[in-house]
Amino acid sequence: MSTRPRRPAKPYRRPKKDPVRVLAFEALRAVDERDAYANLVLPPMLAKGRESGDLDARDAAFATELVYGTLRRQGTYDVVIGRCIDRPLREVDPPVLDVLTLGAHQLLGTRIPTHAAVSATVELARVVLGDGRAKFVNAVLRKIAAEDLDGWLERVAPAYEDDAEECLGIRHGHPRWIVSALWDALGGGRAGMEELLEADNERPAVTLVARPGRATADELLAGDGTEPGRWSPYAVRLTEGGEPGAVEAVREGRAGVQDEGSQLVALALAAAPLEGSDRRWLDACAGPGGKAALLAALAAERGAALTAVEKQPHRARLVARALAGNPGPYQVVIADSTRPSWLPGTFDRVLLDVPCTGLGALRRRPESRWRRRPEDLDRFAPLQRGLLEQALNAVRPGGIVGYATCSPHLAETRAVVDDVRKRRPGTELIDARPLMPGVEQLGDGPDVQLWPHRHGTDAMYLALLRRTA
């Protein structure tokens, strides 16, 4: 029997709480457990951390990168993690999987040194999961750390070499069905798809809109860290990740946060040629109010009035807040635009930005790509068609309807417009491309599909229809 003395046990060390990584984990749990959106839950969490003194500006930026980067590449990281464990991924407890994915992003998607990424994530696991499960996290992360992202993709890709869409999805963190839908809408070859998927994984700059008659782009450009938008005369981009609330015009409601693609849609509708009266405009699905605020400002310059309609009361309150202070006449109405309370032929211009899958805004809401399902299209289809039917009823003969959606999926864009036009022969499509002057690569028309990789915007779609009878 050995007579060597036993080594004394190491004293227990309490885990050290890292406020940045704990916040990132809690944000991921909110997205997972409550179907929350990161762009809604993260800002108040960051604000609370700054108020308490736990986070500074650099910490907030790092937490944002951890959350959004993890969500964007979740599918890729799931495949890698699946290669490093001895059980199906679905059998891993969701909180454990969130910690593993957060660690995988630090190892494969950032420049954090390997040792620091592993040790910090294991420490996080000790804080939020306990010491027992932290050992499992440590073992898995050390396997992941054996390769960089390119190395893992080289190991994984051969299994999908006969399925280009699945392979692209794994490489760029998109479900296969979304890759297929985007490819159908984009057309062209694989190189263009690679560019689009890469653009979907880039964090978009914050874009402001100067509301006409209330603010100017030059006023917004007077601040540091700004540059003009690419296409809209009212657009200004914050180039250094600035806080919109720090801009005086935004605080006063004279400017707002709005993607340049949304601005172009509203501007094209307002610029469409019209014969006769141009006094009554309708935003039939106005929430949360960004396009309504821009339209109201443009209408006010012409002496026209905007009616902004929103079905959900809480979203109608957001519309009212966005429109507050508009110099021209407007009203906010809580109503269902599929069952309108106004008479047919009441309006001269109608904007219809329909509820959709949101596949055009995956840069801003990366979790949507994992939350949406192909069957969601069946849910939206009848609503989109019904709304367009009623919008065409609402506009007078000779008036214009702008059908818009933040999705490039053909089932939500051209298929909707074509189906409704077959049932409504008294309509014609107007070429929307000349109404976006200076914007390049707008396709064959007459409708317009914007793209993140081509235009630096969300993938907004617009078709302009004139009611002829």
UniProtKB/TrEMBL annotation:
<dbReference type="InterPro" id="IPR006027">
    <property type="entry name" value="NusB_RsmB_TIM44"/>
</dbReference>
<comment type="similarity">
    <text>Belongs to the class I-like SAM-binding methyltransferase superfamily. RsmB/NOP family.</text>
</comment>
<dbReference type="InterPro" id="IPR001678">
    <property type="entry name" value="MeTrfase_RsmB-F_NOP2_dom"/>
</dbReference>
<feature type="binding site">
    <location>
        <position position="353"/>
    </location>
    <ligand>
        <name>S-adenosyl-L-methionine</name>
    </ligand>
</feature>
<protein>
    <submittedName>
        <fullName>rRNA cytosine-C5-methyltransferase</fullName>
    </submittedName>
</protein>
<keyword id="KW-0808">Transferase</keyword>
<dbReference type="InterPro" id="IPR029063">
    <property type="entry name" value="SAM-dependent_MTases_sf"/>
</dbReference>
<feature type="binding site">
    <location>
        <begin position="285"/>
        <end position="291"/>
    </location>
    <ligand>
        <name>S-adenosyl-L-methionine</name>
    </ligand>
</feature>
<dbReference type="InterPro" id="IPR023267">
    <property type="entry name" value="RCMT"/>
</dbReference>
<keyword id="KW-0694">RNA-binding</keyword>
<feature type="binding site">
    <location>
        <position position="310"/>
    </location>
    <ligand>
        <name>S-adenosyl-L-methionine</name>
    </ligand>
</feature>
<dbReference type="Pfam" id="PF01029">
    <property type="entry name" value="NusB"/>
</dbReference>
<dbReference type="InterPro" id="IPR035926">
    <property type="entry name" value="NusB-like_sf"/>
</dbReference>
<feature type="domain" description="SAM-dependent MTase RsmB/NOP-type">
    <location>
        <begin position="182"/>
        <end position="468"/>
    </location>
</feature>
<feature type="active site" description="Nucleophile">
    <location>
        <position position="406"/>
    </location>
</feature>
<keyword id="KW-0949">S-adenosyl-L-methionine</keyword>
<dbReference type="InterPro" id="IPR049560">
    <property type="entry name" value="MeTrfase_RsmB-F_NOP2_cat"/>
</dbReference>
<dbReference type="InterPro" id="IPR018314">
    <property type="entry name" value="RsmB/NOL1/NOP2-like_CS"/>
</dbReference>
<keyword id="KW-0489">Methyltransferase</keyword>
<feature type="binding site">
    <location>
        <position position="336"/>
    </location>
    <ligand>
        <name>S-adenosyl-L-methionine</name>
    </ligand>
</feature>
<dbReference type="Pfam" id="PF01189">
    <property type="entry name" value="Methyltr_RsmB-F"/>
</dbReference>
